[in-house]
Amino acid sequence: MLQDQIIAEIKLIPDEKLAEIYDVIHYYRLGLTQDKQTPIKQRPIGLAKGQVQIPAGFFEPLPDEILDAFEGIK
């Protein structure tokens, strides 16, 4: 039986990796149950319009010392 084969494979996985396997199985199962429920409706675009202010300098280039930090340059 396929379920027995899956369980046998899971028993061979190291303990420190079992949480990852659980996450995969759990989210896969949730996806199956969600498919049977009402489909998720997408939220309309622009719900927060006027509630967030972007500063004028947001799109300005970052200073060299910040760019260097992203690249690991000291």
Describe the structure.
This protein is 50% helix and 0% strand. It has 74 residues and is mainly alpha-helical. It has a domain of 35 residues. The mean pLDDT is 87. It is flat, with a radius of gyration of 24 Å. The chain starts with a helix and ends with a helix.
Low-pLDDT runs = none
Tell me about the biggest sheet?
Answer: none
How many beta-strand runs? 0
Principal-axes shape call: flat
Mean pLDDT: 87
- Helix-residue proportion: 40-55%
Which structural class do you get from the secondary structure elements?
Answer: mainly alpha
Indicate the radius of gyration in whole angstroms.
Answer: 24 Å
As a percent range, the share of strand residues is under 5%
Query: How widely separated are the two ends?
Result: 58 Å
Secondary-structure map:
Elements: H1 2-11, H2 18-36, H3 64-71
Can you summarize this structure?
The protein is mostly helical and 74 residues long. The chain has helices at residues 2-11, 18-36, 64-71.
Keywords, separated by commas or semicolons:
single chain; mainly alpha; 74 residues
